[in-house]
Amino acid sequence: MTTAEKLDTRETILKAAADRILHYGYGKTTMSEIASDCGMSAGNIYRFFPSKIDIAEAMTRRFAAESLVTYQAIMRDPHRSAFQKLQDFFTFRLERTFNMFDRNPKLIELAHIMAQERPAFIAEELMQERLLIEAILAEGVEKGDFAPIESTAFTAEITQCATMKFRFPQFWSRLSLNVLRHEIDGLMLLVLNGLSSRKTAG
What we know:
Layout: H1 3-24, H2 31-38, H3 42-48, H4 52-76, H5 82-103, H6 107-117, H7 119-143, H8 152-162, H9 177-195
């Protein structure tokens, strides 16, 4: 099997798994069912994904990679100030995650499983996010939007902690997107005022 054929097969498996998990849920989906949907044997599935949790991780990594494209676009935009980049970063993160789980309620089960079974992946994802936040903070300090920061790494970590509610759907308690937007806007106003060299985010 060529590399291209392997990639095609992997994509076929991921699509079949995503369709079934989004419809029936992670717990009610079996590797045999995914294999059947792909028209292949379960043994062939295991050649590409050793277990169902590996498929779940691949799905989650894809979501993270797609989000990263927009994060990087926000950071590269020369027309956005550091204030706006930080605001847009967290607003996009909230809205993309909310809409994904709102359209696919079965994903909440997968989110719980990933947190329990793959904590190293969650930690890796959080670290990547902190590096992006730190880059925005460093730019803000360099351009004079933010007051000097003793440690951008620590400030990025604290900023991430402050916004953690808006990252994990397990914390939302069935709140609407409008309510969550209102809350994160208020939180970001506090954060940006605290960072501002002019003591205002306006």
